[in-house]
Amino acid sequence: MGINIVLVEPEIPQNTGNIARTCAALNIDLHIIGSIPFVISERTVKRAGLDYWPYVRLHRHENLDDFFSIYPLEYCILTSSRGQHLYTEFSYPRSHQDCALLFGKESTGLPTSFIEQHRERSIHIPMRPEIRSLNLANTVAILAYYIASQHNFSSILNQRSS
């Protein structure tokens, strides 16, 4: 399965482009769930992703149920400013093969009821209480690189030696 970045209904084209660039850099898959208010080929998305789009393994899913039919919930880590665990204290899978990070839309995040139902699988990045959230692309980069570092960057280093 590998490390997967999963965006649920992303709203901002530049964020999606920057996240695609992070996925290309780490050699990890990008999944987009649900409808989005822009086209991946839009100039702003393409520009943010630069010329790295050929290196992005992009998967589209109609809804969360469609995604979970392929990637079971036990492989998923929910990200939210309301997450239960500090991201540096969460017990990630021992293998980078077993990880899907779910991110909600920029305006509302993942649904509160979904986070509450699966609280034990939720993480957050600490920040001042008066700050509502970090930029989605920054959050993805922080967490993706943190998890990749836990596995000695095997998603990219093993590829370079082959």
How do the strands and helices of this protein lay out in sequence?
Elements: E1 2-8, H1 13-26, E2 29-33, H2 43-49, E3 58-61, H3 64-70, E4 76-79, E5 85-86, E6 98-103, H4 112-117, E7 122-124, H5 136-150, H6 154-160
In short:
With about 160 residues, this protein is α/β, with parallel strands linked by helices. Helix content is about 35%, strand content about 20%.
Could you walk me through the main structural features you see in this protein, from its secondary elements to its overall organization?
With 162 residues, this protein is an alpha/beta fold. It has a single domain, classed as 3-Layer(aba) Sandwich (Alpha/beta knot). Helix content is 35%, strand content 19%. It is built from 6 helices and 7 strands. The chain has helices at residues 13-26, 43-49, 64-70, 112-117, 136-150, 154-160, and strands at 2-8, 29-33, 58-61, 76-79, 85-86, 98-103, 122-124. It has a 7-stranded parallel beta sheet. The radius of gyration is 15 Å and the shape is globular. The chain starts with a strand and ends with a helix.
